[in-house]
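Bench notes, afternoon.
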Amino acid sequence: MNSPSLPHFRMPAEWEPHEATWVGWPHNTTDWPGKMSAIHLVYGEIVRKLSVGEIVRILVNDKKHEERAMRMLDRVCVDRSHVEFFRIPTNRGWTRDFGPIFVKDSTPQPELRIARFQFNAWANYPDWQRDNRVPERLASKLKMPLSMVKHAGRCVVLEGGSIDVNGRGTLLTTEECLLDEQVQVRNPGFRKDDYEQVFRNVLGVSNVLWLGKGIAGDDTHGHVDDLCRFVNRNTVVVCHESNSKDDNYDPLEENRERLTGMKLEDGSSIHVVRLPMPAPLFFEGRRLPASYANFYIANAAVLVPTFNDPQDRVALGILGELFPDRPVVGIHAVDLVWGFGTIHCLTQQQSALTRHS
């Protein structure tokens, strides 16, 4: 049995108007050992930048957790009239992956609903049960319809960071994340046509672009939001490693070569722009997934992770030219990436029902 088709619904592109951005206020010290004070400060700065152009909806575990978050937001001068708290317990704060994926009805009577995918901590960690319940709890609080996503009689596991869309029918993903049958297997036995049917039925996607591998150090095993992103309907940025001896060089070159032969949903070519990689970062001997592709497109800004690296300025310049309609803002992410993710990983957009919401 497959999930019901949502024929008039689609997943909007990230640059389309938001009603809100969702984040989970950090609390899991194992994600950032010895760094929680710095992480709270970075989160506060992210919320301050986001709240200029939209509501920021923050998940907290309880009243005390909310009070700690409010104190930090006050310290960095966030306008709290643009912030809403939801007391829903979480295991971690990576809202991109466990948070609700909002789809939008394209008929004359616009409607939002939540496409309810399952979350199992990237098939990599044992503590995920609270995170996995977030979409239902939010649907109840928001009084929003929720559609359970099933395929072949099974609930489908999918993280938001494993896909990226242009809002017109094309989706980016990787074979490493969704098709590997040996490492971090989300949906055993699923093939390309299984995923493509799910994307078509639930996200309004008619065209799937399959890249190969993700970047070194990515504990999600190949999320696309660390290597290739849409920046408008027909343009993507793809990470490029200039050092041919680096572990990322060959996989990223292969992805770029694949993109040159791919087409969009209407048969047109893709404009491919190279985005540099920062120098490798390590923690306790383990490489971290530092990438400028993990940016987030908000209503009033594009927030880009930076790493105290000479390539920071280059990456910000490239993205600044690609987003002429909103400022491109660097966010210090050397501490954030200790948790194996940065800005896109911790945010999830809620689309606006109308252009002027």
